[in-house]
Amino acid sequence: MEKDMQQVLQKAEVLIEALPYIQRFNRKIIVVKYGGSAMSNEELQKNVIKDVTLLKLVGFKPIIVHGGGKEISRWVGKVGKEAQFVNGLRVTDEETMEIAEMVLNKVNKSLVTMVQELGVRAVGVSGKDGGLLRVDKKYADGQDIGFVGDIREVDAKVLYDLLENDFLPIVAPIGLDDNYQTYNINADDAACAIAKAVGADKLVFLTDIEGLYRDINDKNTFISRLTATEADNLIDSGIIGGGMLPKLNNCTSAIRNGVSRVHILDGRVPHCLLLEIFTKQGIGTAIIADDDNLATGIRRDRFCEER
Q: How far apart (Å, rounded) are the C-alpha atoms in residues 44 and 217?
């Protein structure tokens, strides 16, 4: 009986710890970029959707921007093609574009169904709907990589209207150019552009890594929080590379365009979104503005203030 009571009290403490965060972010917009392993694992997928749905039910205004890269590559392979990438961007010819749009729309409606099964109304859109994402052709270091779009404009009204009518928007990263040609868009780029356009309070990237390290081979160098300038210094020093480099550039761009906080989380950790947002410790890396009045720190135990 005493053990049961302790478990009940621990649950109550968790709820109390979450209260100030719920109060602070009530009615605030949070953009969640969803992809990686968390999208290909059914149990993790359900956990992410539960987390986002809970955020919605406690007063947040979440927007999901999803990828589908692994599934696109699988379908490209089914038709006898080999996926090609330049600087992390998928080379997208006409046939690959058709496959990408098919897969992304399928993923989109699957996520809509999962959210609605939990009692929250969701609407799935692509960047083509309502002119949400207008793009120009994107090049990779001057190289033509096909139908890959560089976002020029986001019509935030499409998303504002959905949010104000109590829907949870789920966005597939596909856009149109001025000639109404369809383009594939990097999901990180889409999430960043959307977060800036809607004035999101938080932008969250669910990834396949724990967060940022000063030395990837030394777990003691984990970076729990850093400013946009510190992030730029990491990039300039060559410490950050590979697929994390464009992601971190997106993070600093979002911060300098009005997004209050950007979080890089390990989407493979069950309920990582709730742990990061509703607890003092958090579990990922938070990137903040240079003038944020909270001190930065490499290790979480060096500060106990709210992140």
A: 26
